[in-house]
Design goal:
With 384 residues, the chain is mainly beta. The chain has one domain: Glycosyl hydrolase domain, family 43 (Tachylectin-2, Chain A), CATH 2.115.10.20. The protein has 3 helices and 26 strands. The protein is globular. The termini are far apart.
């Protein structure tokens, strides 16, 4: 009798252990709130765009042929056009000194029918030239693009203008992704020139999902842009070209996100992809750099991982939630080797394609990678 009772007790304890193990297995799902995008998985364990030393471009400033994507291809923007994914990626040539930011950058264009396998243009589509922006873009180049489709079907590009002395967010527009009009720095006309000498980079314009494409969205009759590294801030525009920082009552740009000691963004946060307006609020996918001294355990010092933050749809400056753990981080060898050896999964491009989210990112400042996530029912993200 006692043996049977002991056996039943052991079986109950075993069942309880199995139940607890099952419950523990479910815990990771609880750390992924329903407002977040993802989880993201790599459909291939390899980069999708790599350098091509054979590509040659007749540079209009040097008046000489240049191997414009010989060294690195990384930090991509993405958009869906005509049933295909188009990626604008940063490409570095083999001129200059061997160091980060010391080669000239131009933007190449690649297209894909499945979002994974790409065919590239042989020439860059956006680059420094003998134009009104030459002083801001030469010899460093045009870097780190983000792209959105405007309501009229044209495209708006935010990118970094880098002359190896200073940097700003530049604005450019196009109707076909090939021919571009540069409009100069985003804040050039803001507040009577108050921001003319400000150094700033990394800007994503708010979008919403309309008929399967991410289109620039208005809130309270304005377009909105999250911008900056070190501190993430906010700006508004009436036309997607001329932008004005949102300020505090003291006249300083309002700060939305800062560094958090002990977490993956302990060094600083930096804007990632163009943010997305959803029924839950505004979802911002951003990049977090891990600090060397008070950083997150398990992530290399200096490594860039992906975080997500949720802002109010009624008040784009009001933070409602923010992830403490990265949803995406350097794990593969090609994400940890290259000219930025600490590792990066630097997100800049997001599209809704074939009913899934495709996330395009830079790998160690050297390559382009992609990750894919299932999307909820279209009605839960689609905006009217």
């Amino acid at each position: 009798m006692k043996d049977r009772q002991l056996l039943r007790t052991r079986l109950r304890l075993f069942g309880l252990a199995v139940f607890c193990a099952g419950a523990m297995a479910l815990l990771p799902a609880e750390t992924h709130p329903d407002w977040m995008l993802g989880p993201f998985k790599r459909p291939v364990e390899a980069p999708v765009i790599t350098p091509n030393p054979k590509s040659v471009f007749q540079d209009p400033i040097r008046h000489a042929p240049v191997h414009w994507e010989a060294l690195h291809t990384f930090n991509p923007a993405a958009v869906v056009r005509g049933g295909r994914v188009y990626v604008l990626y940063r490409a570095e040539d083999n001129t200059g000194s061997m160091g980060i930011g010391l080669h000239t950058s131009r933007l190449g264009l690649a297209e894909s029918e499945d979002g994974i396998h790409f065919t590239r243009e042989s020439q860059p589509v956006f680059y420094p030239s003998n134009d009104a922006q030459k002083e801001r873009e030469w010899p460093g180049g045009t870097e780190d693009p983000r792209i959105v489709e405007a309501p009229d079907g044209s495209y708006v590009l935010t990118y970094t203008q880098w002359n190896r002395k200073s940097y700003t967010v530049g604005i450019a527009t196009s109707k076909d992704l090939h021919t571009w009009q540069k409009h100069g720095p985003a804040f050039a006309q803001a507040a009577h020139g108050k921001y003319a000498n400000l150094k700033y980079k990394s800007a994503g314009i708010l979008t919403h999902l309309v008929n399967g494409r991410l289109i620039a969205a208005q809130v309270h009759g304005k377009y909105w842009m999250y911008w900056g590294e070190i501190k993430i801030r906010l700006a508004t525009s009436p036309d997607l070209i001329h932008w004005t920082p949102v300020e505090t009552p003291q006249g300083d740009p309002v700060v939305l996100l800062r560094r958090r000691p002990g977490l993956f963004d302990s060094e600083f946060p930096e804007v990632g992809t163009p943010p997305l307006l959803t029924p839950k609020g505004i979802v911002l996918l951003y990049n977090g750099k891990n600090a060397a001294h008070d950083g997150a355990p398990g992530i290399d010092p200096g490594a860039y991982s992906g975080g997500q933050a949720l802002f109010s749809a009624e008040d784009p400056a009001r933070l409602m939630a923010r992830t403490d753990q990265p949803y995406f981080k350097p794990e593969m060898p090609f994400e940890k080797s290259g000219q930025y050896a600490a590792g990066t999964t630097f997100v800049e491009g997001l599209v809704f394609f074939h009913d899934r989210w495709f996330l395009y990112y830079g790998c160690a400042d050297s390559l382009v990678g992609v990750a894919v996530a299932d999307a909820p029912a279209a009605s839960s993200v689609e905006q009217n």
